[in-house]
From TrEMBL:
Enzyme type, top EC level: oxidoreductase
Keywords: Metal-binding, NAD, Oxidoreductase, Zinc
Keyword Zinc recorded: yes
Family, as annotated: Belongs to the zinc-containing alcohol dehydrogenase family.
Gene3D superfamilies: Medium-chain alcohol dehydrogenases, catalytic domain, NAD(P)-binding Rossmann-like Domain
Name of a matching Pfam family: ADH_zinc_N
Organism the protein comes from: Actinoplanes nipponensis
Keyword Zinc attributed: yes
Requisite cofactors: Zn(2+)
Location of the Enoyl reductase (ER) domain: 15-330
Name of the protein in its database record: Probable alcohol dehydrogenase AdhA
């Protein structure tokens, strides 16, 4: 099969990839072999290719927003048949036995492993997934539209929960790419008033088209105090900016796996009056199922920039340069 590997992580993200021929993997007991129909290009892939995340598996095949169909069942698998459409997401496996897993916080499992970082992912003709970590997918969406839901959608959904947005509250969204444009729609469907802060004029236009109450520059003040905010842009300088935009008792959730350094915070200006700063770490399978159930009941507008699988390097380079509107998706 054909696949892309991250051979030399570094600033030249397109150059860090190499297309190779690999053997089709065999599904281990409890796994599915999945033919890849589409794979979203996530900012985490960019961090892996750029070397901003440490190497977990040398020459890894990136990609963890995989929509595909089952080719083969590993020993012991029940509940799936060849041909079934499934989703493969970032969280690949957890131990199921540690105190975090037992309390329902499997996203914090110290032995968690991740698709496209610890194990080969979806920039390939085929990949594998543990059957108990594969997702059933909602009807009514194309494979290209489904792919971003499997990370951008799921992590945005968790970030929104972590931001403790009250019913009918005022939400600020910093950065407006693949994850943010889906999260905004979830919040709007729940009755929130959404203000988008992003440097891209194209993204500002999209935000208003999707129903945002306002769209301004990333460092601008929103037109009203915020009850909650989510930071999607991996820019630490925006943390104090977003905290200052919060009303008393507001919460800022930082959604990314990687963030540039946060400058010194001023307690009185940015944290006093019970403002809260929270990180977001991966997701649980329950987060994934909840987001996909929501998508089944609320038709989300998934803005997609499609690329052939053969142009994975170009897609990563465009994402790094903020040339992608919505979500980049590789199509088989």
């Amino acid at each position: 099969m054909q696949a892309w590997q991250v051979r030399s992580p570094g600033p030249d993200v397109a150059g860090s990839l190499r297309r190779v021929s690999l053997r089709v993997p065999r599904p281990a007991p409890g796994e599915l072999l999945v033919a890849v129909d589409a794979c979203g290009v996530c900012r985490t892939d960019l961090h892996v290719a750029a070397g901003e995340l440490p190497v977990h598996r040398p020459a890894v095949v990136p990609g963890h927003e995989v929509v595909g169909h089952v080719l083969e069942l590993g020993d012991g698998v029940t509940g799936f048949r060849p041909g079934d459409r499934v989703g493969v997401a970032w969280l690949r496996e957890t131990c199921g036995a540690c105190r975090y897993c037992r309390r329902g916080a499997e996203n914090l499992c110290p032995r968690s492993r991740y698709t496209g970082w610890d194990a080969d992912g979806g920039y390939a003709d085929c990949t594998t997934v543990r059957a108990d970590f594969a997702y059933a997918l909602p009807d009514g969406y194309s494979v290209a539209e489904l792919a971003p839901l499997l990370c951008a959608g799921i992590i945005g959904y968790r970030a929104l929960r972590r931001a403790d947005l009250p019913p009918g509250g005022r939400l600020g969204i910093y950065g407006f790419g693949a994850s943010a444009h889906l999260t905004a729609q979830v919040a709007l469907a729940q009755g929130a008033r959404v203000h988008v802060l992003t440097r891209s004029s194209q993204a500002q236009k999209l935000a208003l088209e999707l129903g945002a109450a306002s769209a301004g520059g990333a460092y601008d003040a929103p037109p009203e105090p915020l009850d909650a905010a989510v930071l999607f842009a991996p820019v630490g300088d925006l943390v104090p900016v977003a905290l200052r935009a919060l009303d008393r008792g507001g919460t800022l959730a930082v959604a990314g796996i990687h963030l540039s350094d946060i400058p010194a915070l001023n307690y009185q200006r940015e944290l006093f009056q019970e403002r809260t700063l929270r990180s977001v770490t991966s997701n649980t399978r329950e987060d994934g199922r909840a987001l996909l159930t929501f998508a089944a009941g609320h038709r989300l507008t998934v803005v997609v920039s499609p690329y052939p699988m053969a142009q994975a390097g170009a897609a990563l380079a465009d994402l790094a340069a903020d040339r992608v509107n919505g979500a980049a998706v590789l199509l088989a």
